Amino acid sequence: MFIPRTLLRISIGAALVIASLSPQVTAQAPAKPQPDEDLRREIRELKQGQEAIQKELQEIKNLLRDREAAKPVRPETISIASRPFRGTNGARIVMVEFSDYQCPFCGRFYRETLPLLDKEYIQAGKIKYVFNNLPLDDLHPAAFKAAEAAECAGEQGRFWDLHGRFFGNQNLIANGDMSSHAKAVGLDVAQFDKCVQSGKTEAAVRAGVQQATSLGIQSTPSFVIGLVNDKNPNDGNVKILGVINGAYPYPVFKQAIDKALASL
Fold first, then answer.
1. pLDDT of residue 32
2. Domains of the chain with bracketed CATH
């Protein structure tokens, strides 16, 4: 079939015009969020972050509250009745040491700091120095038996003799031969051995451990600075003024004791 050239041009042109007028499907980039939408999104994210932080803070507060509730309340007074002491019985300021015969820091306090305190405060009648037991069995296996032995020496009126012997020879305590130490300080060894073997002083040693636990004391040496009740000075109880945990240098003890004396 023959199509005139002029008609063909017209047909092609018409087709092009129609095609140009037909809707076209093309890929378009997603519309950008409006500024208001960005702001709302940021606000939501901030709120979510704040809620998460508040929840975490509340959990921490609850944990701290539970720990505080579980912590034992330290008593206001402690008893020093029946405990060996040095100094004037009528002194109103008392320093109670909780100690372990195998503890090297306790030995250092005995050798270096106690003589200075003894000269300035104990012998001068300004304070009463009291000793109590806190043997740390896990660290020092022979400390509990040494404490029992010292208490047995006390039955013969020689507590301080064996006490000094132990702190002066800490490296010899580990073998458990308490009799040789008793003999060295002039004790009746047969009576001493009978006391140690009977275990009769175990309760006194455990009482010291329990008292330290009630005070929250877990390390040696530790010291309680206390005040004797002036209304009833013979009741054996002292008011707790402060606690020193550790074998600090002499000036630390001097400051604490002077402060206590100044309060009288």
1. 56
2. 77-262 (3.40.30.10)
